[in-house]
Design a protein that fits this description.
With 390 residues, the protein is α/β, with parallel strands linked by helices. It contains 14 helices and 18 strands. Helix 12 (310-314) links the parallel strand 15 and strand 16 (318-321). It is globular. It starts with a helix and ends with a strand.
């Protein structure tokens, strides 16, 4: 488009203050944030930012440079993002054996005294939804304006090769797309638990994985599902997701209440998703003779509340450790890719509910503080989300 000198002067006069103070203009509601941001990205006058941990326990927003787009790449502007609490918070705090005694995949054990190197700064975040703003000249199946989603850190833009792009399906909420990761973890646990038609199941820990587990246990055939967590808002959501009995372990003897509710038998399967030693003890107390306890958790804190006494010693309980990233899975033909695809399909089909799962939802400018808040006070939410339009 050709502009006269007079029109170009008007445009320069309008754009100059935006270029000089871009984030100030983004903060004013009278300016269309999406238009201003897109203009600044195109002109190269705007440095996008990403959420990082610059040292253990501390977050900040860091500016980064966008590399020139390659022929096979797609670039997108973030709309929504979410973090992964358990796994991410361990790395963020850097206070586990993974930091002090690195885990060797060759030996499949922690190597004592060998500390993790160069862990910081590190990007934070788990999944995103974004609108495509640019495509390389060899990209054939993705167009500018299409919506995509995937695994990635909390940042304002994403650049990736076309073969890694997943298009967002029409009519599916961004919250549901953000739930595909915890749903995949939960699905692996439910499969390894071998939950069958008519089983009674107890789910300990109602974070994102636990809340997906409540629903997946029912889909797998469970007749009755108990949900246990000390955080009220999580308990309320588990009721909406179909839990038959909801318990606060601070107020109830969980094992006794579950035995009373099951004619002294106990549940066939306990799913421990919290990483709490007290919850593992309650799971052992709640499970029937020769029943199964399945854990999807990493136990970082000292296990001072774990009691391997009568319930463990006399009831011949089987314990299974589950990690969806650890392959191969127990069942031939199943792996992480297939498990994640099944979890995604259940969410898209509406058989898994993610309403209320992403909580709290904060603006991108506040995510650094919100991340620390969720780490220090997990009772304030379930799964931290970011709305980049706020």
């Amino acid at each position: 488009m050709n502009f006269s000198h007079r029109h170009k002067h008007k445009i320069d006069c309008f754009c100059a203050p935006i270029v000089l103070a871009p984030r100030l203009f983004l903060s004013y509601p009278i300016f269309n944030r999406e238009i201003v941001l897109h203009f600044l990205l195109l002109t190269g006058e705007f440095m996008p930012r990403e959420l990082i941990a610059d040292r253990p326990g501390h977050t900040t927003l860091r500016e980064y440079d966008e590399e020139p787009l390659k022929r096979d790449q797609v670039r997108a502007k973030s709309l929504f993002s979410a973090v992964k609490h358990g796994t991410e918070f361990r790395g963020f705090q850097a206070n586990t054996l993974d930091a002090s005694d690195i885990f060797s995949w060759e030996w499949r054990m922690h190597l004592r005294g060998q500390k993790q190197k160069d862990a910081f700064p590190k990007r934070l975040g788990n999944m995103y939804v974004a609108d495509v703003t640019d495509v390389g000249q060899d990209v054939s199946n993705i167009r500018v304006g299409e919506r995509i989603f995937g695994h990635g850190p909390v940042r304002e833009t994403h650049t990736l090769s076309e073969d890694r792009v997943e298009k967002s399906p029409d009519g599916v909420s961004w919250q549901a797309l953000m739930a595909t990761d915890p749903a995949g973890v939960a699905l692996g646990g439910v499969r390894d638990a071998n939950i069958r038609i008519g089983d009674r199941v107890a789910v300990f820990g109602l974070g994102a994985i636990g809340l997906m587990t409540v629903q997946l246990a029912r889909i797998a055939g469970a007749r009755w599902v108990a949900a246990i967590d000390p955080i009220e808002k999580r308990c309320l959501i588990s009721e909406a997701y179909g839990a038959d009995l909801v318990l606060d372990p601070r107020e109830a003897d969980v094992g006794l209440v579950i035995k009373q509710a099951t004619a002294k038998l106990g549940v066939d399967v306990s799913m421990e998703t919290s990483g709490s030693s007290a919850a593992m003890t309650d799971a052992l107390r709640s499970t029937r003779y020769q029943g199964t306890v399945v854990s999807t958790a990493y136990y970082n804190a000292p296990m001072q509340n774990l009691h391997l006494t009568g319930e463990w010693h006399r009831n011949r309980i089987r314990i299974i450790s589950v990690r969806s990233d650890s392959e191969p899975w127990l069942d031939y033909g199943w792996d992480k890719k297939r498990g994640n695809k099944e979890a995604y399909d259940l969410l898209v089909d509406g058989r898994l509910n993610a309403e209320g799962l992403i909580d709290p939802i904060v603006p991108f400018n506040r995510v650094a503080e919100a991340y620390i808040q969720m780490n220090e006070h997990p009772d304030t939410g379930i799964k931290l989300g970011v709305d980049h339009s706020l």
